[in-house]
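Chapter review: from sequence to fold.
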Amino acid sequence: QIGVAEELTDLDVLADMRDLRSLTLTLGDESKIKSIAPIAKLTNLTELAITKIPSTVKDLSPLKKLKNLKMLVVDGDSLKERQKEYDEIRKALPECKVVGFCMGSAWILVVVPVAVGLGIWRRRRSATGKAA
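The token string follows.
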């Protein structure tokens, strides 16, 4: 889980974390981040929760490069404001569930692992021929 300090101007520090499978990233309105492109280098990510995406981030297309991503959780406001971009991500990553979430609480820290775990459980059950 990473909260971005106001002084941080880019996400380049993430580029070396290639083995990362799950990431919760909170940016915030005060963030000076202009690009989420370094996230695209995290090709092993299966779960990503990215919240409070500032207006300085103009392009969400780097997320389309995360071919192993199974769950993308974003704050509900971002999902509404950038619906077209998230629809493009859904098309590029058909195995990925894109979910909007109300950020009024810290429930996201529970929801992402539980949702991914349920998805894995259902896939395993269906693979063994049992109804999910």
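Two observations follow directly from the output. Strands lie at 2-3, 22-26, 47-51, 71-75, 97-101. The radius of gyration is 15 Å.
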